[in-house]
């Protein structure tokens, strides 16, 4: 619409000026005919000349003499005079719209310069009705033509928008719908092909998201399958361990002092294995029970973990326990044993991978708000890739062949106690983890 206005306004003003100049030319021809006849033109011919020129009279100035060359009765007073010799663009536009907006038939005087140097001035008197009628017809033609141009432009714009925007967006929507039907199928990931840069960036972002989601779904599917297999194995293993537990109970009554000393430890290990199998089955059914919090002697529990991992002062890898003898914590004994066991086992495996001797240290302390337990080693430290997904299952493994489950399980069990497991340091001098357990406000059960 703005383009139409910018075209229509100067066009209608130019048309009015050309219309008036044409009337002056016609009037000049009629006046020259009268002058050539040397005043012998009959009144009938004079009236015909004025009628053809569509004016009432013609005044021509030649040789500094102003002469009324042709004349006829004027039906009314002259309403306004227009001098085309001095008119600028804004005056022409103003006068054009004044003519269009005035429906009355006015008598106006028009002054201009004769063509071919036939004089210094020509002046005519005429009606405004023919001028206004011609301007309205011309304006309608301009508007119709502009409307046609606008329709064609709009159609071309529609085709361009459809080609450059609508069709690529529909393609993206179809890809999203197709991908939603089977997000695990990598063949359904979108391939960027848009010509518009912004749409191509959106397609690339969608491709990246779909690729990551497909990988995650595949991993989830493998985890689900693995979980089913583990649940089946744990079920059968629990039955086997239950039988072994019955035999271990009988060994406790043996007269052999060595067997009698070893039997409680064997029974405790088998009991932990049975509990682990039961917990695995419960986890497979998403029914893992919350930790059963009770008072635990941390030094005694850490000693059992070190002994269970085969660590002593006589082995190449020694375990130092820097724990207050009477320090009691509130935790689930079986779950916290698994936490410490996973951390100590990871540390032992890291040191063993170097082929050199090393040390694992378990220390602890407390304040008014929490207990903290630190497990450190003198191993080679964790690689950068392992630290990125340290507590994520199947992603945080630092050892070749490792699954990355140990730290993930430990972190989850600590969170179940309301605490947190964090990596304190990992460099060439070793690795250290810290467990923070809140004391809370409730009393520790006996």
TrEMBL record:
| Coiled coil feature spans | none
Identify a single GO molecular function assigned to this protein: kinase activity
PROSITE patterns per the UniProt record, alphabetical = HIS_KIN
E.C. number: 2.7.13.3
Q: Which InterPro entries match?
A: HATPase_C_sf (IPR036890), HATPase_dom (IPR003594), His_kinase_dom (IPR005467), HisK_dim/P_dom (IPR003661), HisK_dim/P_sf (IPR036097), Sensor_HK_Regulatory (IPR050736), Sig_transdc_His_kin-like_C (IPR004358)
Start and end residues of each Histidine kinase domain: 232-441
Q: Does the keyword Transmembrane helix apply?
A: yes
Q: Which reaction does it catalyse?
A: ATP + protein L-histidine = ADP + protein N-phospho-L-histidine
Q: Which UniProt keywords apply?
A: Kinase, Membrane, Phosphoprotein, Transferase, Transmembrane, Transmembrane helix, Two-component regulatory system
Mind telling me which residue stretches traverse the membrane in this protein? 138-161
The source's superkingdom equals Bacteria
| Entry-linked Pfam families | HATPase_c
Matching SUPFAM superfamilies, A to Z? Answer: ATPase domain of HSP90 chaperone/DNA topoisomerase II/histidine kinase (SSF55874), Homodimeric domain of signal transducing histidine kinase (SSF47384)
Protein's recorded name: histidine kinase
Provide the organism lineage as a comma list: Bacteria, Pseudomonadati, Pseudomonadota, Alphaproteobacteria, Rhodobacterales
